[in-house]
Write a structure and sequence with these properties.
The complex is a heterodimer of chains A (405) and B (89).
Chain A lengths: L4 E10 L2 E2 L1 H8 L6 E3 L12 E3 L6 H4 L10 H16 L12 E7 L4 H14 L8 H4 L4 H10 L5 E4 L2 H17 L4 E8 L4 H10 L27 E9 H6 L7 E10 L11 H12 L8 E3 L6 H15 L5 E3 L12 H15 L1 E2 L14 E2 L5 E2 L4 E8 L3 E8 L3
Parallel strand pairs in A: 5-6, 5-7, 10-11, 10-15, 11-13
Antiparallel strand pairs in A: 1-2, 1-8, 1-9, 3-4, 7-8, 9-16, 12-14, 15-16
Chain B lengths: L7 H12 L23 H15 L7 H4 L3 H17 L1
Helix pairs in contact in B: 1-2
Classes of the chains: A alpha/beta (405), B mainly alpha (89).
Amino acid sequence: MSARTLVTGIGVAAPSGLGVEDFWAATRIGKNAIGPVTRFDASSYPARLAGEIHGFEPAQHLPGRLVPQTDRVTQLALVATDCAFEDAGLDPGDLHPCDMGVVTAAGSGGAEFGEKELRKFWSQGPKHVSAYQSFAWFYAVNTGQIAVRNDLRGPTGVLVGDQAGGLDALAQARRRLRKGSRLIAAGGFDAPICSLGWAAHLAGGDLSTSDEPERAYLPFDEAARGYVPGEGGALIILEDEEGAVARGARDAYAEFAGYGATLDPRPGSGREPGLRRAALTALADAGCHPAEVDVVFADGAGVPRLDREEAEAITAVFGPLGVPVTAPKTTTGRIGAGGAPVDVVSAVLSMREGLIPPTTNVELSPAYDIDLVALRPRTASVRTALVLARGRGGFNSAVVLRALD
Amino acid sequence: MSKQEFTFADLKRILLDGAGADEEIDLDGDILDTDFESLGYESLALLETGSRIEREFDITLDDDIFADHTTPRSLVEAVNASLKVTVDA
């Protein structure tokens, strides 16, 4: 059997921080990063709050040739990837290009770039559309640009499954490592804060219309009234253990120990949603008993029906109040395909620090029998973490991360 | 009304606006006879550049103009030849 899959580097671009240090400094104390939309005029839309990344200047981080041909989401993905390689103590040039690959998840692709070019198409005609529109809008663009920039010529792929897709990308990376790749860069990104992306979120119908940044996105709260979209994501360097040891990688964060994915049954069927089974599958894959799990990073939909389903699934697996549960994404909003990889980053950092970040702003509804880490962080020995993610369309994914001895 | 001359400065500006510049390359240096490929501009960058020249100067360029004219000097001459045909017509 192949060696274990290790998390050896992390990079993050989130509303709460660009770069792991800033991100964790804000996340560990639950500092709110949700605010009024500034990237476009949202005043006439029913939803007007977002988790935006402020102060990001792509030209400060990326080559001049890349900036005109990339959407914001790709710029964020490339910068997070640079951070992750640096964090792994690895220059991509240190390994053979064919031994390295990249798998990312995306929800909406390069929405802002696409919107700008569609505007030109309709107002000025097809000759005014950028040649780079051919790929800049596309779901697979982050994978492609990461591969080109870092000369990763091994397996590549892209997963589309909303929030769940971010975990599916990590699982696909592990499959590729088991088939012989040496290193896979994996994660997920979304940047939907433009009028095109906003229209898509609004069409989904679960957007919070609150104007109060600290009361708008409240999963597991009686006042839950939808979600706030965020932008960004995370990139995680996964390596097989033998290769990581052989190159002298020190301080790997954790083992990527288990994964499970399910689809919900047809709406109205009356059958149980798939989240519990995804969690149990991931635990079984990791060879892990529920009692060993120290924290659950919840999907935290912020929609009463979905919150109830998730709370019931967690209680069914762990028993009432059986495990600490947290959803630090209340500070950033839901980042689509980027949300779960950001949670994976939080999970491995909570292992490193021995601290579970809080679910800011939320007062737990008495309807749920879960041990929510609300308002304040909690010190804890975190050896095993379960990350849950659900995507629109019935996708459920779960990942188990385990501390290394 | 189309402009009557396409200059090297126009080309530099359009390259920068449409496709950016490689950090290793000084577009203000002596690059008139350097291949676009060596300057860091691949086929898509040239497609975008050609499309911007066509819009701004209100001309139609041959599909293979960058295949036949691989350096700034050669391209500027070819675009001007095309402009002259347009004006004369």
